[in-house]
Amino acid sequence: MEKPRSSAAAVPPLLPLPLLLLLGFLSASSVNADTLLSAPLNVTIRELEGNSAVVTWEILEGDPVIGFAITQQKKDVRTLRFIQEVNTTTRSCALWDLDEDTEYIVHVQSISMGGSSPPSQPVLFRTPKESEKMASKSPDEVTMEEFGHAAQLRAGELIIIVVVLVMWAGVIALFCRQYDIIKDNEPNNNKDKAKNSSECSTPEHPQGGLLRSNV
């Protein structure tokens, strides 16, 4: 008599628990590697003033960046200022209300839909004093504001010069006109003088005769 055959399919052996954990960790790491942003590069401080500055940075091409976050901190002080902006492609940010002659530390992070990147390398900078800035300014250095002021002064000087030249031209023209009039009247004056002198040289005697000298 034959024994009935079992209809159950063969079950593969179960994987060890440590191997399952390792596979899960690797899969999670691969997912995070696809969504992780790189830290911003070439973080630089520009337009440094006594009370303000501008921080700029670059990102790796292809990173799905939608914003940035900046951490600003005074050196040796725990107080932080956190600046965050999204839905922007800008690669710079203005820092305001800074103290003169003070050291600051700045970190920059990129933001994507999946989260934030690691912070960039810290950048240390020091704000100058206004007096130091004025002293360090070269005498030959001309700002745009000074250039505009100088241009206005030059325009005013040119207007004054033109007005003076026009006035002088008018005075010269008037003098020439008066001189021509005087010159034209000189012949008539000479004729009158000659006539008067001839009349005075032969005066008539009251009785109608000429005056003669007594011998």
What oligomeric state do these chains adopt? single chain
Low-confidence stretches: 1-15, 25-34
Span from first to last CA? 210 Å
Mean pLDDT: 75
Along the chain, the helix and strand elements come as HEEEEEEEEHH
Q: How many distinct helices?
A: 3
The total count of strands amounts to 8
Class based on secondary structure composition and strand pairing? alpha+beta
Q: What gyration radius follows from the Cα positions, in whole Å?
A: 50 Å
What percent of residues are in strands? 15-25%
Helix amount: 25-40%
What general form does the structure show?
A: rod-shaped
TL;DR?
The strands form 2 sheets. Strands 3, 4, 6, 7 and 8 form a 5-stranded antiparallel β-sheet that branches.
Give the SSE layout.
Elements: H1 17-35, E1 41-46, E2 53-58, E3 67-74, E4 80-86, E5 92-95, E6 103-112, E7 115-116, E8 123-126, H2 130-136, H3 144-201
Antiparallel strand pairs: 1-2, 2-5, 3-4, 3-6, 6-7, 6-8
